[in-house]
């Protein structure tokens, strides 16, 4: 039996997703390394402390550009509608995999939309706090101290969301990750996880 595949993400969407994801992992590792001496060994992923310090802000610039593209690409699909609010009301059933008690989702469920907004907010805060730290001579010590705190907190928040994101896309819901590898999902996967979107894709 031939498995029907549905196109979910274009090559450009996948490219932007991987650029943001990979650069964030590099930033997370080097940022944690700079946060405490016991974690400094993490800089070895970029060839040691000096090179990591040089690359960290430049990788951050690439991350910020990628985030801008990501927001522009997906923002139109990320506003909550009535169905999403009902989905959020049944999120405990989603967590327990009681799918028959969860309102049907469109291309993105409400959890994915909330993830988008949190990551967009964290991305903006990363940029806003990172620029003063990159060019400290234009700011006084109090401002720089607050920027360090904000940068650190949003990094931890973004890191926690990344762990959840990877877990949900791989272990919790098999078949999800392939959408960001070859851009497709099976019709069965779509029907199970995003019924409204599956119906739209198979209507003709």
Task: Tell me what the structure shows.
By secondary structure, the protein is mainly α. The chain has one domain: Fumarate Reductase Cytochrome B subunit, CATH 1.20.950.20. 67% of the residues lie in helices and 3% in strands. The protein has 8 helices and 2 strands; from the N terminus they run E-H-H-H-H-H-H-E-H-H. It has a two-stranded antiparallel sheet. Helix 1 runs antiparallel to helix 2 and helix 5 (110-134) packs antiparallel against helix 6. The longest helix is centred in the C-terminal third of the chain and has 32 residues, at 141-172. The two termini are 21 Å apart.
CATH topology: Fumarate Reductase Cytochrome B subunit
N→C terminal distance? 21 Å
CATH architecture assignment name: Up-down Bundle
Q: Any idea what the shape is?
A: elongated
Main sheet overview: 2 strands, antiparallel
N to C succession of SSEs:
EHHHHHHEHH
> How many distinct beta strands?
2
Tally of DSSP helical segments: 8
- The overall pLDDT average reads 92
Structural class: mainly alpha
What is the level 1 CATH name? Mainly Alpha
């Amino acid at each position: 039996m031939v498995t029907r595949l549905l196109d979910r993400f274009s090559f450009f969407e996948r490219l932007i997703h991987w650029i943001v994801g990979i650069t964030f992992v590099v930033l997370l590792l080097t940022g944690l390394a700079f946060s405490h001496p016991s974690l400094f060994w993490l800089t070895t992923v970029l060839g040691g402390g000096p090179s990591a310090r040089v690359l960290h802000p430049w990788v951050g610039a690439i991350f910020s550009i990628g985030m801008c593209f990501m927001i522009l690409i997906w923002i139109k699909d990320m506003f909550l509608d009535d169905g999403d609010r009902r989905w959020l009301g049944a999120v405990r059933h989603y967590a327990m995999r009681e799918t028959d008690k969860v309102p049907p989702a469109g291309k993105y469920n409400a959890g994915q939309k909330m993830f988008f907004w949190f990551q967009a907010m964290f991305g903006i805060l990363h940029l806003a706090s990172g620029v003063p730290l990159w060019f400290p001579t234009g700011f006084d010590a109090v401002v720089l101290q607050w920027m360090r705190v904000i940068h650190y907190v949003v990094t931890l928040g973004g890191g926690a969301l990344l762990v959840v994101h990877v877990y949900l896309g791989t272990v919790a819901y098999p078949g999800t990750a392939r959408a960001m590898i070859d851009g497709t999902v099976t019709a069965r996967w779509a029907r199970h996880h995003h019924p409204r979107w599956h119906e739209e894709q198979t209507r003709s």
